[in-house]
Design a protein that fits this description.
The complex is a heterodimer of chains A (291) and B (416). Chain A has 291 residues and is mostly helical. Chain A folds into two domains: 31 residues; 221 residues, Cytochrome Bc1 Complex, Chain D, domain 2, CATH 1.10.760.10. Helices cover 55% and strands 0% of the residues of chain A. Chain A is elongated and about 95 Å long. Chain B is mainly alpha-helical. Chain B has two domains: 252 residues, Cytochrome Bc1 Complex, Chain C; 106 residues, no CATH class. In chain B, α5 packs antiparallel against α6, α12 runs antiparallel to α13 and α12 packs across α16. Chain B is globular and about 70 Å long. Chain B starts with 9 loop residues before the first helix and ends with a helix. Classes of the chains: A mainly alpha (291), B mainly alpha (416). At the A-B interface, α1 and α14 of A face α4, α5, α11 and α15 of B.
Chain lengths: 291, 416
């Protein structure tokens, strides 16, 4: 009994200290911010309840988008090398094949209407400023036309299944600027170009699942400005599902042994638990002779 | 030279040459430990096991680690953590073990303070133990640099910078420690050497000294009772085990330690596999970048209390800058525990709760150390800075007051 009392006192002292230096200190150093919003409710320029017309969307995309963007799933291949594209636009323009799959519908429609406000980058590209975002606003299109474009992009997006989606989504959403050396993945925009375009080399994401961790990434990818005000990383506009795929890929790359760790962990703990029981029985036997 | 008979068995052959019988008696079966003890007396064995675990896991890590600023980070986080079979396991055991070893050291140390196990002949046990604490601190600090993450780099930067405050030679001393004007490749390689060779050697030496220092004054017990070990041992050997106040190290003492060890290891492995962030700070999974200062720089949790004593003095007092005052306080904090046996002027060797004045001092110290630890991590802004100042002052005052408190106690109990 006395020993349990001692143990309780030690547990209390250790517990208080732990609470102070871990949960409490983290709470002070990283205050909670607004929860992630996967409906992108702040974007209201386009009426997304309109049903899009795929055929009209195809006409609009071919007239307005493929001059700069490739759309490989519909047979529009890249027309430039990545180095040339980066030199021309600042950053390699995305292939639109997966746009219909990975971006939230509301975000995508409003992005087409006005990219800078959708990305929360007006501090970097102020209206009438010297620098302009490489993609123009399509605010002259009607809401119906924009929804036609969205419908068309959604119709041509290839089906990806299983774990392949993790890498595919990461490549499409992050891979133009970020490298991930542990996955042997290099940013498609050349290093010097992306550095000039973003103001600094975007970080290698190999260990971001560990250094930033899931909770932070969940909020950060959804809206970088909330957690890192002034960053030149845009709000990408991933749907919740696509964002989970990206984080899953970062985990497969940065913490590839997680499943093994959790499996082995249970066995080791069970082993030591059995050891403790046997040790207790032995101790009782030995000490019965001296008490 | 002794005369050697033909040995009848392999055991006898070795016994003739190595004195196994005698050795086992001296070290194990007739090495006497008081019977009146609780599980806190198992911390020494826990620490021996933890040190062994750290050495073994360290050896495996050493096979793949590369002490070079361009390779260190990836050799740990990619090669060891992801490519080498069970490399992650050794890394986790090593990193979490290094943190948990300090938890046990602190429990061990404050057990010693609580039960008064540092005086009346036990001074050398205490001093060799404090020496081990300092060596483990050096080991922990140098090891934390090796993964070459952001916190490795900036903690190294801040801590080596401290030596710049030493009068006259400060500036040169910092360069001498770093091997460069800033924390660089030469800093990494020399701390690597310290971590894997010099400090471990010194630790092993200090452990031997610590164990040896126990031999003559013997281990303390729960009531601080002094008795004749030889007489009690005789009683035990004569078969009166129940009335003897001692038990042999093997198997009686160790059987209890193994049980405590078992319980501890369940907890330890839970941390290793499922809850390791406290020992493997997320910030350190960003590669070291000398141009990018992290928003918050803090040492590992076990250094926080002394770090807070250092930065608690943030303003000038009587013409001495806050930085200098902090350094002086920091230096005092590092050394003051060594002289504890002489600051405690009371002859009482009793658990703190049976000592009329010391008990208040002890629990005050515990509370103050916890406050220092917590505020050592929090950003030192606004009210936090003042809490830091107050708790640092409290720490110093506690040790200045200790001789007076214990002197008064001695008077009250009349030299008992």
């Amino acid at each position: 009994m006395k020993e349990l009392k001692i143990l309780a006192i030690i547990a209390a002292l250790v517990g208080i200290t732990y609470y102070g230096i871990e949960p409490y200190a983290h709470h002070i150093m990283h205050p909670e911010v607004k929860a992630a919003d996967f409906q992108f409710k702040d974007l209201k320029n386009v009426d997304t309840s309109l049903a899009g017309n795929v055929d009209n969307g195809k006409v609009l995309v071919e007239a307005n988008c493929i001059a700069c963007h490739s759309l490989e799933s519909a047979g529009h291949a890249k027309t430039m090398l990545d180095t040339d594209a980066a030199a021309a636009y600042g950053v390699v323009p995305p292939d639109l094949s997966s746009a219909g799959r990975i971006y939230d519908k509301n975000y995508l429609a409003n992005f087409i209407f006005d990219p800078v406000s959708a990305m929360h980058l007006s501090h970097k590209y102020p209206a009438g400023g010297a620098k302009a975002f490489p993609m123009p606003s399509y605010n002259w299109m009607s809401g119906q036309e924009i929804m036609d474009v969205v419908a068309y992009l959604q119709s041509v997006t290839p089906k990806v299944v299983g774990k392949d989606t993790h890498k595919a989504t990461y490549d499409a959403a992050c891979g133009r600027c970020h490298s991930m050396s542990y996955a042997k993945s290099e940013a498609t925009t050349p290093k010097d170009a992306v550095k000039a375009y973003m103001g600094a080399t975007p970080p290698d994401l190999s260990q971001y699942i560990k250094s930033r961790q899931e909770h932070y990434l969940h909020g950060f990818i959804n809206d970088p400005q909330l957690l890192l005000a002034g960053t030149s990383m845009p709000r990408v506009g991933l749907s919740e599902k696509a964002q989970e795929e990206v984080i899953a890929y970062m985990e497969e790359t940065g913490d590839s042994k997680k499943a093994e760790r959790e499996r082995v962990g249970l066995w080791v703990m069970l082993y030591t638990f059995v050891f403790a029981i046997l040790a207790y029985l032995w101790k009782r036997k030995i000490w019965s002779e001296v008490h | 030279m002794a005369e050697f008979k033909q040995a009848d068995s392999m055991y006898e052959w070795f016994d003739q040459r190595l004195g196994i019988d005698k050795f086992v008696k001296v070290m194990m079966t007739e090495y006497w430990i008081p019977k009146n003890i609780n599980f806190l007396w198992a911390m020494g064995v826990l620490l021996s096991v933890m040190f062994t675990i750290l050495v073994v896991s360290g050896i495996f890590l050493l096979m793949y680690y590369k002490p070079d600023v361009n390779m260190a980070f990836d050799s740990v986080n990619y090669t060891i953590m992801q490519e080498v079979g069970y490399g992650w396991l050794f890394r986790h055991i090593h990193a979490v073990g290094a943190s948990v070893v300090f938890l046990i050291i602190y429990i061990h140390m404050f057990t010693g303070i609580y039960y008064g196990s540092y005086k009346k002949g036990r001074e050398m046990i205490w001093i060799s133990g404090m020496l081990l604490f300092v060596l483990f601190s050096a080991e922990g600090f140098s090891g934390y640099m090796l993964p070459w993450g952001q916190m490795s780099y900036w903690a190294a930067y801040v801590i080596t910078e401290i030596f710049g405050g030493v009068p006259l030679i400060g500036g040169d001393l910092v360069v001498w420690i770093r091997g460069n004007f800033y924390v660089s490749d030469s800093t990494l390689t020399r701390f690597f050497m310290l971590h894997v060779l010099l400090v471990p050697l010194a630790i092993i030496g200090a452990i031997v000294l610590h164990f040896y220092a126990l031999r003559f004054p013997h281990v303390n017990n729960e009531e601080g009772e002094f008795f004749d070990f030889d007489k009690e041992a005789e009683k035990y050997l004569a078969g009166d085990k129940k009335n003897s106040k001692v038990v042999p190290f093997w198997p009686v003492f160790l059987s209890k330690d193994f049980f405590v060890l078992g319980v501890f290891l369940v907890f330890f492995f839970y941390l290793v596999f499922f809850h390791y962030d406290f020992a493997m700070d997320p910030v350190n999974f960003d590669k070291a970048d000398g141009l990018k200062t992290p928003a918050h720089i803090y040492p590992e949790w076990y250094f926080l209390w002394s770090y807070e004593v250092l930065r608690g003095f943030f303003f000038e007092i009587a013409g001495i800058s806050g930085k200098s005052l902090g350094l002086i306080a920091f230096a005092v904090a590092q050394g003051v525990f060594f002289v504890l046996p002489w600051l405690d002027r009371s002859p009482m060797v009793k658990p703190a709760n049976q000592r009329p004045y010391f008990k208040y001092w002890f629990w005050f110290l515990m509370v103050d150390l916890i406050v220092l630890t917590v505020y050592g991590k929090l950003p030192p802004t606004g009210a936090n800075a003042w809490v830091g100042f107050a708790s640092s002052m409290t720490f110093l005052i506690l040790f200045i007051a200790l001789p007076f408190i214990t002197k008064a106690e001695a008077k009250k109990v009349g030299g008992k």
